[in-house]
Amino acid sequence: MVYVVGIISILLMIWYVLVIRKYKFTTKSITRIGVTVAVAFVLHLIVLFRLPQGGTINLFAFLPIMLLGAMFGKEEGLTAGLIFGALELINDSFVINPIQFLLDYSLAAMPLGLTGIFGNDKKYKLVLGAILAIALNILSHTVSGAVFFGEYAPPGMNVWLYSIIYNLTTSGIDGLMNIIALAVFPMSAIMKISKSK
């Protein structure tokens, strides 16, 4: 199972490299990515509460990356997610395997940049993109939990069920908060400002 997960993880990283090879990063785009990651990381450090099983709920840490991806495209969003995931290693990280690192820190944060995948001209499209982004985030954490942390499941409990429950109560709650925040965010006004500049 670890090998299959590893191959899929590596293929996803190759896909990312192929996507950004065609994108021309400018000084503006690099600055946007840097500022976005910095804001997301600061928000990630603000813990609203810790759950008994060890997870945390943070103050809208996903939102800056979701907004960047929605406003400026998946290339910038995915890159910001990748850097943000790497920075998470500084704070409360737990790495036991290179593939687990990819799943929990890179491939989990990168999909947040796909929020604008269905378009950014209508609020419902952004919300659908945000739901997809959070679902992929939870999926990545769930696979990591089942494959690499199954020994923490209560005796007799299926490791996949345990991982799903754990990640829905951590990343799921975090993600839901960010989806709601995005839904009430004045995106049309922000989009007009960003296009006028």
Please describe the structure with a list of short key phrases separated by commas or semicolons.
197 residues; mainly alpha; two-stranded antiparallel sheet
Structure description:
It contains 8 helices and 2 strands; from the N terminus they run H-H-E-E-H-H-H-H-H-H. It has helices spanning 2-21, 27-45, 63-72, 74-87, 98-106, 123-148, 159-184, 187-196; strands spanning 47-50, 56-58. Strand 1 and strand 2 (56-58) form a beta hairpin. Helix 5 (98-106) runs antiparallel to helix 6 (123-148).
**Low-confidence segments:** none
Describe the global form.
globular
Main beta sheet, described? 2 strands, antiparallel
Class by alpha and beta content: mainly alpha
| Element order: H for helix, E for strand | HHEEHHHHHH
The portion of residues assigned to helices is: 55-70%
Radius of gyration: 17 Å
Mean pLDDT: 89
Beta-strand residue fraction: under 5%
Outline:
With 197 residues, the protein is mostly helical. Helix content is 68%, strand content 4%.
SSE layout:
Blueprint: H1 2-21, H2 27-45, E1 47-50, E2 56-58, H3 63-72, H4 74-87, H5 98-106, H6 123-148, H7 159-184, H8 187-196
Antiparallel strand pairs: 1-2
